[in-house]
Amino acid sequence: MKRHLFGLVAAVALAFVSFGCEGDQGVEGPEGPPGPPGEGVAPYTYFGGFGEQCMHCHATNVDNVLTTGHTQAYDDLGDSQTNLYCLQCHSTGFDSQVAFGDTAIADANRGPDIYGYDDYYGVAGDTAAERRLALEGVQCESCHGPMGPEFNAHSPDISFSTHFVGTESTSLCFKCHTTQINEWVNSGHALAAGGDIDAFNQEHYAHVSSCQPCHTSEGFIEDNDPRYATYEFEHEVSFIGCPTCHDPHIGEAGGGNYAQLRNTSPEEVQYTFPYQPGDEEVPRMEGYGPAQTCAQCHHGRRNTSNVQGQIANGYAHFGPHLSPQMDMFIGAGWYEIPGKTYNGVHQHQSISLACVECHMVRDTMLHGEMVAHPFHTWNPTVGNCLPCHQGITDFDVNLAQTVVRTKLDQMAVLFGYTDWADLEANWDSQAPAVLPWQREALYAAFFVYEDGSFGVHNPAYTNALLDNAYAYADSIINAP
Known about the structure:
The chain has helices spanning 7-18, 55-65, 84-90, 126-134, 140-144, 178-184, 197-202, 212-215, 217-224, 242-245, 291-295, 304-313, 325-330, 355-359, 400-414, 420-426, 436-451, 459-477, and strands at 164-165, 168-169, 267-268, 284-285, 361-366, 369-374. It is mainly alpha-helical. The longest helix is centred in the last third of the chain and has 19 residues, at 459-477.
């Protein structure tokens, strides 16, 4: 492959950086006027060469990166390899600005660097051709910054965050994945603590080891990627963002996951009663491809003893710890009242990509053509439902959500409250007058409420939970 033609080029480049200390600038050092390259100085800011200059210390990462779509980005352009708008993100070191449809780079729009792909585009001669070949695709330097001209002074750009500081994103992905990050800005992930990164770092969960794996980018990476198990992250933590879910260094061809996702493994429920964690019988979500990444955090996050402790004694934050969508979707693994029958099987479980298919992928117009685009707002649209539910205009199909909301209100009235909103805001599970049977019944209601879909994620399980809980509470409250 042409990737390996650069061994000689890289060796020559490294010859500039491997010997000598001062270079040609003499005692003035880096503060002196710039001169021709000398010892310790490379002839270019961007080496290119598909990471061959990085192999000595980062061989595993370089080998892995070669398995990603980033490496093949230039080849994937096909007939568009002369399209400047595309080349901005399908080559290395391209720092000029071009708009969709531009056929030339205006002098006013040229970037300050003079050794990236854009600086050799349209230039005649063997040297320019060799340099273009060396800078094809998205390489190490595209994300981590140029290695030259002072090779030994290179400090790679590294970021585990995605948020904005002013108008600038802290993400290394922003230059090319602008659309996705502008979508992310409007997502729940980006709006934790009101979207204020300083306020986020002051939240109680931001620096608690048991909370970080699902609340912070650094925590998720440390918990889900063995290579970072001993990595020393900075104290400031980041919102869940691009590098949280996606590993930029390994593709499917290298043994990685679809879309370079860090973890798509099966995830078992946390409330495992009557089994022990890890038992074969424990319900788990598996086989849904990229949706398995969502399942790593969007489950009840409460173990068996915690749930049973809440029911026996009450708890300040009663119910599941937010976002138990995985448990609801698979219809298992939550507190079920003994002696009652629960059915968690439903048609939505046949959707091959589960969360991703409903909350992300849909056709949209991008770059002048209609394509299937994975939206990173994670907000579902009614259009996703139309293949099965023709003619609907909202998610309340056959008034299913209305029925669930009504059942929540009826439960609240049974307990003496005006409606569910009144109960959810004012009920104290630790109050002396509250008995365990009341907590048993209301645990189901809080689970349905925290799921947030009001039945969409699993109509059968939702209604079974609420119907059984109501019947159980009613039989005690209105006992003859």
